[in-house]
Amino acid sequence: MLNTPLSRLRWIGFLEGLSYLVLLLIAMPLKYLADQPEAVRIVGGLHGGLFVLFVLAVAEVTLRRPWWSPKFWGAAALASVVPFGTFILDRWLYQVEQQDLAHRSQLK
């Protein structure tokens, strides 16, 4: 499942997007409405680590597909700051991954 750079990026992107939603929709309201800042500290730290992994995964894919560089980095950067953005990026990455698999099977 995690044997290609694209599959790793998809998995990390899913986790990063999920942590962002938990941060925005659960931890932030707990901090400001229930006076529980611990939630933001915990989820924020987790999200920060996943964000770093997401950037590293984007860099790995870019090294494997240098023709994607500017457009791909822009799409990934936008996806990382827009809620649900990584899930939208994932749909496109899934299609690319399926095309890669089809292409590899034709070569065999």
Automatic annotation (TrEMBL):
The keyword NAD does not apply. The chain crosses the membrane at residues 12-33, 39-59, 71-89. It is a multi-pass membrane protein. GO terms for cellular component: plasma membrane. Residues 6-93 form the DUF3817 domain. Keywords: Cell membrane, Membrane, Transmembrane, Transmembrane helix. It is found in: Cell membrane. It comes from the Bacteria. PANTHER family: MEMBRANE PROTEIN (PTHR40077:SF1), MEMBRANE PROTEIN-RELATED (PTHR40077). This is DUF3817 domain-containing protein. It comes from Anatilimnocola aggregata.
